[in-house]
Amino acid sequence: MSMLRRLGRPAPHRKAVAAIALAGLAVLAGCGGSSGGSGGSTDDATPKAGGELKVSFFPDNANFSCIDPFQVYWIEHRTIVRNFADSLTDQDPDTGEIVPWLASKWEISPDGLNYTFTLRDGVTFSNGNKVDAQVVADDVKGWLATVAATNGTAYGASYIQGLTGATVVDPLTVKLTLSQPNASFLQATSTTNLAITDPAEYQLLPADRCTGKGVIGSGQFVLDHYTAKVETVITKRTGYAWASKLVKNQGDAYLEKVTFTYVAEDSVRIGNLTSGAIDVSWPRNPITPQDEKLIEASGQTVEKRALPGVSYTQFANTTEGRPLSDPQVRQALYKAVDLKTYAKTVFGDDYPVVAGPFDSTTPFYSAQASKLAYDPDGAKKLLDAAGWKVGSDGFRAKDGKQLVLDYPVTQFSAGPELLQAQLKVVGINLALRTLTPAQTATYVKDGDYDLTQTYFTRADPGALQFILNPDVANSKALANRSATPAVTEQIKALFKKAIQTTDAAQTKQAYADLQALLIDQGVTFPLFERVQEAGVSKDVHGFAFTSESFLRLNDVWKS
Amino acid sequence: MTRYILGRVLQALGVLWAAFTLTFAILYLLPSDPMELQLAAAGLQADGISPQQLADLKHQYGLDQSIWGQYWTRLSGAVHGDFGMSLTQNLPVRDLIQARIGQTLLLTGCACTVSMVLGLALAYLATFVRWNPLRLFLTRLPALGASFPQFFIALMLIQFLSFKLGLFPAMGNTGWKSLVMPVATISVLTSSVLAQVLIKSFDDTLRQPYIVTARAKGLSRSAVHLKHALRNAALPAMTILGLVIGLSVTSSIIVETIYTRVGIGRLAQEAVLSQDVPVVLAVVTIAAAIFVTVNLIVDLLYPLLDPRIARNRGRVRVPAAQIEVSAA
Amino acid sequence: MSVESQLTHDPDAVLAHLDPPDTDAPVAADAPDAAASKRPPRSGRRARLHTSASQLARKPGFLIAVVWVLFVGISAFWPTLITSRDPYETHPESAMLSPSLGHLFGTDNYGRDLWTRVLYGSPLTIKATLLAILIAIVLGLTLGVVSGFLGGFVDAVLMRGVDVLLAVPGLLLALSIVTALGYGTLPVAIAVGIGIVPGFARTTRSEVLRVKTLPYVEAARAGGASWGRILLRHILPNSWGPVAVLAVLDAGVAIIAIASLSFLGFGAAPPAAEWGTLISDGRSYLITSWWLSLLPSLFVAMIVLSLNHISKTLQELTR
């Protein structure tokens, strides 16, 4: 059920990590890239302590600057959070297995409603406060309060579906209670969004916490400061002794300080890396093949790992009257897009080709490659059958109306012009429209699109609910427009079947059915596999990705 | 004299107020609702919450007042130096500005100084050199400097000085080295503008009869150049100081973005894009204030430098003339 | 680059504003003169034109500039005359080719011919520039003429209004306007045009003030001609020269301003691309494929420089 995929060239000292796929409630399947394993384990040299690591991200969130673990959705910031705040559990990037971290063990009641965590003793926050059962219970209370205070907008809300509260059993034992089974919940406790922080922060307003005020974790690093859109700095703390078994270095961090800057220009980020001004260049979209060559020519490496969760997927506006309300046109769209050439041209020769609604590192991933094959003639036939005839300008039209698909372009778009050229071949006019950040905020709600994209990073297929299930979706408008009510009901039923159970086989079957349904009904249009890539200086050792493809600094040191 | 100064100050304040109002008007003609921006940024659309919750949130940000109400709140706040809260960064605008304005002033200050020196030097050389081809080249050089888009110059400097030669950092605010390329980028344009004005002024001066007389009396060319041309150039140089400063502030928007510097130029660009109205208003007001203040100072100093104006002040509406000079 | 065009980058335009508003002011005589104040009277215009033309023909730099501007002008309206390629057709297999005879400017990351794309960028950029200049001339001329002609209170108010436009940083003003109107060539043209208005208003105004006091205008006034007639027959035709020179110069400024705005991502919808967008798109490949950014930049710089040179030469001739 899962494929071993080697992304890019392996770093010389790293052995390829085979992916073991296991299905189970607590053991999720995953798949590692060449460097997805527990980093540093094969680095021969002796780690050296000290030094500052300089990391450059792409620009900070323009509209919602936030560093508070529970509220933040920006994946770059979740990377930062991972290094200053620990979670109850950790997830193995290679196997998907959930392993102990702040909780040394846990028990799940047979009905799937109670999670009892036994905490490791002796853990403290960076301000010296103890991490105990009361702290976890207060955090749960804080999460629920934040969901209420932000009207459900806080991103963490999507991880705690069904969570109703927590009770302290003894100073090191805490029981979390759910109102209904949630097969994703144990995995949720390993995420950065449910990191354990000093609950004192919940006395502050959500907006204040976003600036970093009161945000205290128990991680190897301490959040020194966050200046929105400018930089975030974390510094080493001493006396750290509660790393999960997934990292080699169980003690203090090697690095003294890590500075994350936000750099708009791709060329500046890459140039800084190759000239040695920074240590890690961490873009959002994959590095272009040209830049990759450049990085490798200068002796640095490119590390890659597919981000788990929803792939870079487009969603159609199937509102009545829109061209994509016709299922035949939607099926033609699959055939008209040459995903292989797209991946090769935009991201390079060895870039994986997307094969379904989820990235290949997502547990319960099931490839739909044959349904996504390039078949322009098939597309033309379908469009002809749907009544769209080719006009003199090469574009199709029906009843005097051209087949135009309104395609908003945002900072996250990659290669839209290539997609446009591909669709032109079968007579579809993909009209690209660059949005202002302001329009970005409203176009989905206003239904001002025919095809738009979104994704969701989480090592669990349940992530897609927050796009497609109108009851919990972050944008109800997008969820409602992406499928007809009947199909939406089917999707909801399959999610329910997959999540509200303790039977792993049922979960697996339901997710497989779901992935097939999404393509058969023309709901999701995958465009490319999302791979987190990072240009890494040759002086950096022990580089590692977490299961969510975030940067993990425990083993990182500089020579 | 007091009446003159008072009049000038009042005019400056009037311009400042109008700039504030104009910006407010443009921003409130923008198509979207700042509230929806907030929610969308948090990963949700406004359709995800109930009308009551939306109303509460609007109240929290003061967006439920009428346009006039909001205008009045913002204006009276601005007068007291309080620009409210940033809509996207959860921080008082004042804090955001305080953390950045020093860097921008440093950048533009250095750029103005450098371009004054460069502009003067170039103008001096261009009018002093006698060999015609070189003279022509120097005279046309400023036009070349003004023909390349600033962002292109920045990218080229980064490419060669930073990536190829490793001389200066391509980004950041740390150390004097990080200032070199941004200052150079701005100065290419500002010194070109300045040099063009000065070359013209030098040329005019050197054609004056008294220069011919001075030469006839046996003064050397360089002495004439230094004594007369430079002294006479001081006036036009000062009149366009306001222009050069305004140009530097505008340039800082692109320059700070490309060099990833912390400053109000980049803050402004980001704020306009995310429609963070309080931040945009604050930056525009400050930029206008800098511009108006510089011009005011130039206006007040002008009579001291040019006795002709001082002599006639009683009769002529000099102030109006001067504000134009400096804004030109 | 700035959108403001106080920044005509031109000393004459800058110095023009040294003219005081009241023509009876004693400073007037001493102030550095406006470009055209030394122009000979208008009689013998035809003869002058003739000599000018022959003078110009002897300036190779000027001729090159004119030819380049004409070439770009033709490409703006009839790009098919110059290239037969499709600017939007992608050829992933021949992406990122360096400049050669087959591809003068090389190819971009989708294998499109960059030379063709630059030429097809001309219509967008040039039309935006013309529109911006038109807006600036119409608004600026109206403001300047009304202000200079009526004087007094109206003049004071209008000129303070122009000051306000100058006090707001040009690029910020343009950004706000573009954000308000949406992206695309038209909004960018409007934003840039408004940014150039102050320069035109000021130049026109000082010209009107100058012409107003010329003896024959005074004579016409004394002869009882109506204000409208004086305005149309005498003031406008005689104020036109410096304004035209400024327009040529500002076309260059507008091109750079438009490029800057499209560089920041406000330009036409892809795959159409203004010059600024092309430069901007190429900048990610600066290290590996320098031509993608550098060649369109040189193209832009050449046209700006040419306009600048033409404007300068015309000015020298009118002295």
Characteristic key phrases:
heterotrimer; B: 328 residues; mainly alpha; MetI-like fold; 15 helices; 77% helix; 0% strand; globular; disordered C terminus; C: 319 residues; disordered N terminus
What is the compact description of this entry?
The complex is a heterotrimer of chains A (559), B (328) and C (319). By secondary structure, chain A is α+β, with helices and mostly antiparallel strands.
CATH class of the domain at 100-322 in chain B, named Mainly Alpha
Order of helices and strands of chain C: HHHHHHHHHHHH
User: What structural class results from the helix and strand content of chain B?
Assistant: mainly alpha
Low-confidence stretches of chain C: 1-43
Mean pLDDT of chain B: 79
- Overall, the morphology of chain C is globular
| Strand residues, percent of chain B | under 5%
Distance between the termini of chain C: 30 Å
CATH topology of the domain at 100-322 in chain B: MetI-like fold
How many helices of chain B in DSSP terms?
Answer: 15
Secondary structural class of chain C:
mainly alpha
Sketch the major β-sheet of chain C: none
User: Which spans of chain B of ≥5 residues are poorly predicted at pLDDT below 50?
Assistant: 310-328
In DSSP terms (H or I, runs of 4 or more residues), the helix count of chain C works out at 12
CATH architecture classification of the domain at 100-322 in chain B: Orthogonal Bundle
Please give the radius of gyration of chain C in angstroms: 22 Å
State the separation between the terminal residues of chain B, measured CA to CA.
25 Å
CATH topology of chain C, what is it called? Answer: MetI-like fold
Helix content of chain B: over 70%
Q: What is the CATH class designation of chain C?
A: Mainly Alpha
Chain pair with largest interface: B-C, 76 and 72 residues
